[in-house]
Specification:
450 residues, mainly alpha
Length: 450
């Protein structure tokens, strides 16, 4: 009895330490989001590298995150696994961003921003590495995404005088777009969240999308939902169970796998639409109805307060992009330095902005062709890992890839990744970390792998 009592006390102490570390990691992840979103900053945009009260808090939070990663055993393990994961080229990119301080106009600022990105990549990685249960991890991920949207709403409510009709933004709606796809994807493909959590999340993120009235976020969410619907019939199919299409003509191959050619065709037919005259007529009627009665309301919902000319010409952002692309051509190999290239547009004869309003252009002007090669290699490695996870039949791989696609679509108008850290970036990095810990790692390296 004494032996069992000591063992129980030891387990309770270990569990208490574990809960504290999880809470501390979550606080380190959300701390910068709360700092950047809740407290408003009003200063001259040319003073982007000045150390004011908020910059001082950002430095403290980054150092706390770094100390946690270096001193904790879990942090050290997460750092080691990061460099062995598909995300390693993303880490290499931000290491190169730190190196760009050698030719940056603000070297100290470049080093800090690169370090901030590296810490914000690794902290969610450490959190999910520490949690063996995927359902628990999914709830923590939902907390991160919901908290980011709440902080964004609070920021714009205070900024716009608590007028709900003036909450337009490209920031928090981009997080809401990923959030609604994450919730509905769980319902269709993963079943990690409870029905109440899915309903709450989907409704909350849907309302946030409407308040934000961001065209790119609404379009990306729509694309994500259409992709989810298109994958719904493939939910229980595994690529390992069926023979490839060319095996229809190879009866010997079918016999070896103890499946007849008829059975193969029947099973593959679940992936295809059956064409019939009635379906063709039905689709034509739907398209005709949408074109005549729904196209104008849909344009108003997807592109609020924009004319048809504004939509087709993308008035506004294209002016930014042309200037920044010209700046990239002036220094195409190494760029102007991270992230000062996109923050000093006055050197190109343009007004100073916080970003290039496009993640890819941000990479180009900040770090040149070298940065682009590293960044696109990172994307290729990440999507290759997703495809392998889908092919191996890992549950949730398809819908999590759609969540990342939604984030990258938003990245084309509001830089979530590739540029410096912005508070919506945390949600995208957390989705990548979650995918890595529960999909990309080899079976057996985590207790709850599918």
């Amino acid at each position: 009895m004494v032996f069992h009592s000591k063992k129980i006390i030891k387990n309770v102490k270990r569990k208490g330490k574990s809960n504290f570390l999880v809470f501390w990691l979550l606080l380190c992840i959300l701390g910068p989001v709360i700092r950047a979103s809740v407290f408003q900053r009003r200063r001259d945009p040319t003073a982007f590298s000045a150390i004011d009260d908020q910059a001082f808090i950002a430095i403290i939070l980054t150092l706390l995150g770094l100390i946690t990663l270096i001193l904790s055993k879990q942090g050290q393990q997460a750092l080691t696994k990061c460099f062995k994961s598909p995300l390693k080229f993303l880490i290499y990119y931000y290491v190169f961003c730190g190196v760009s301080s050698l030719w940056s106009s603000k070297p100290e600022y470049s080093i800090f921003r690169a370090l901030e990105m590296l810490v914000n990549i690794t902290l969610p990685f450490c959190l999910f590495e520490f949690i063996a249960d995927k359902k628990v991890a999914a709830r923590y991920l939902l907390v991160i995404i919901v908290s980011s949207v709440v902080c964004g709403l609070l920021f714009y409510l205070e900024l716009r005088g608590y007028i709900f009709a003036e909450l337009h933004s490209n920031a928090y709606p981009s997080v809401a777009a990923m959030g609604i796809v994450f919730c509905l994807g769980n319902l269709m493909h993963y079943n990690l969240l409870s029905l109440k959590e899915v309903v709450f999340g989907a409704c909350f993120f849907g309302v946030a999308l409407l308040f934000g009235s961001s065209s790119s976020s609404i379009v990306s969410a729509t694309v994500g939902l259409l992709l989810l619907l298109s994958m719904k019939k493939r939910r229980k199919l595994s690529t390992k169970k069926y023979i490839p299409f060319n095996s229809y003509l190879n009866k010997n191959s079918a016999r070896k796998q103890k499946i007849t050619a008829g059975e193969i065709k029947k099973k593959h037919s679940t992936l295809l639409f059956k064409i019939s005259p009635i379906k063709i007529v039905f689709i034509i009627l739907i398209v005709w109805g949408i074109y005549n009665y729904a196209i104008e309301p849909a344009i108003q919902i997807l592109f609020p307060d924009k004319t048809t000319q504004d939509i087709t010409t993308m008035t506004g952002r294209t002016g930014f992009w042309k200037i920044y692309l010209q700046g990239f051509l002036d220094k195409p190999i190494l760029g102007w330095g991270f992230p000062t290239g996109e923050k000093e547009a006055d050197r190109f004869g343009f007004a100073i902005t916080s970003s290039a309003h496009n993640g890819i252009i941000s990479v180009a002007i900040n770090t040149g062709v070298v940065g682009l090669l590293l960044f696109f290699t990172a994307l290729v490695k990440i999507f290759t890992a997703f495809i392998k996870a889908i092919q191996s039949g890992k549950s949730g791989a398809s819908f999590l890839m759609v969540c990342i696609i939604v984030g990258l679509v938003n990245n084309m108008t509001y830089p979530l990744i590739g540029s410096q850290w912005f508070w919506p970036t945390t949600s995208l990095l957390s989705l990548l970390a979650f995918s890595n810990c529960y999909l990309f790692q080899k079976i057996g390296t985590k207790n709850s792998n599918s």
